[in-house]
Amino acid sequence: MKERIARALRIYKEAAAGDGGGGALVQVWAPARDGGRRVLATRGQPFVLAPPQCHRLFQYRTVSLTHAFPVGGAGVPGERGLPGRVFDAGAPEWTPNVQYYGTGEYARISYALIYDIQAALALPILDPGTGSCVAVVELVTTSPRLRFAAEVDKLSKALQVTHTTLLRLLFCTSILLVAAARCDTIS
Prior knowledge:
The chain is of the alpha+beta class. The protein has one domain (2-186): GAF domain (Beta-Lactamase), CATH 3.30.450.40. The protein has 6 helices and 7 strands, in the order αβββαβαβαββαα. Strands 1, 2, 3, 4, 5, 6 and 7 form a 7-stranded antiparallel beta sheet that branches. The longest helix has 20 residues, at 167-186. The chain is globular.
């Protein structure tokens, strides 16, 4: 599955090229062990930078490699971070600008401020057989965003092209597309 997600992220990167909407980092957070606790980590997981030369996003990716978020009831709620909350809830979460968050809501806020990370979207990847979350796809941008419909649509299409059997992710993305469409009609 990791290889198919990596291929899907490359397809997403190609589709996102030339959007002109600032830079984006898309990275996968997957379960790992940190001593006796179960955590989410992005080390060794697929990621893409669009555009690849975006220094701020590259630096934020480097910082993300050093983070691990407790999941499954381990740790205090503020330690779980965005990927941990999405993993535990099995539901997407997004914000137009993480810079309004505190460390309790966004554990990497100090780095988000340094590297000008603004919008964030996290989507759970759910096992279609059990419904349990197996990983989280996180997308962060260097510009504020009220709408994620285009990004979600590109990610969904990329996953479909790679025949990734993540039907529940597609269900979550359709919910996000509806919510994003509502935001589009309001603004």
